Amino acid sequence: MNIFRLTGDLSHLLAILILLWKIWKTRSCSGISGRSQILFATVYTARYLDLFTNFVSVYNSVMKIIFIAAAFATLYLIYVKFKATYDRNHDTFRIEFLLAPCALLALILNHEFTILEVLWTFSIYLESVAILPQLFLVSKTGEAETITSHYLFALGSYRALYLLNWIYRYYFEGFFDLIAIVAGIVQTVLYCDFFYLYITRVIKGRALKLPA
Amino acid sequence: EDQTRVKDEL
């Protein structure tokens, strides 16, 4: 565990909690893509099946359980409890166009052709693009609430910090996982446009509105 | 020894 990895995990945890808190506090999931949340729930479920087969540490297991529980709690809030506030008319990104290629790629490019390994690989590929429906929703409405942009910033930072963690681990531990690194780069690049807007607008106290 | 099998990352 190095500082990049730890801050990455905390940033990830913070993102998930900000989202739950925002929906709960405002009693509304407006501006949040339920489709991205379906993809994230799929990602955690596919990746953390090793909770049943492999024990790494208490930290590892607790974080995994929190991520899975929070993902399904978020889905419950969006699709059941605060269903009336869900922005379904704007949340129209076709997730099958992400799910199918990721599944296919996981079957072809993986470390080992076993069920758990292919599911892990699928989750890595899917996570890298899972935010697209959310970014699509923001671009469609042309704006995001400030709390939603904090959520996106924390979520995007997490994989960027993991990239630093992988650079660190490569130099100091000789560790590298090409699948995770390439997917992590793709994931981080997808946020770049958003990071720019966040830094130039939200931090200066303005609302995140896309340039017309 | 394949180090990628030890999945300590989240």
UniProtKB/TrEMBL annotation, chain A:
Record's protein name: ER lumen protein-retaining receptor
Subcellular location: Endoplasmic reticulum membrane
Annotated family: Belongs to the ERD2 family.
Keyword Nucleotide-binding set for record: no
PANTHER family xrefs: ER LUMEN PROTEIN RETAINING RECEPTOR
Membrane topology term: Multi-pass membrane protein
Keyword Transport among UniProt keywords: yes
Family matches, as Pfam families: ER_lumen_recept (PF00810)
One GO term of the biological process aspect: protein retention in ER lumen
GO terms, molecular function: ER retention sequence binding
GO cellular component, one term: endoplasmic reticulum membrane
UniProt KW keywords: Endoplasmic reticulum, ER-Golgi transport, Membrane, Protein transport, Receptor, Transmembrane, Transmembrane helix, Transport
Transmembrane segments: 62-80, 92-109, 115-138, 150-168, 174-199
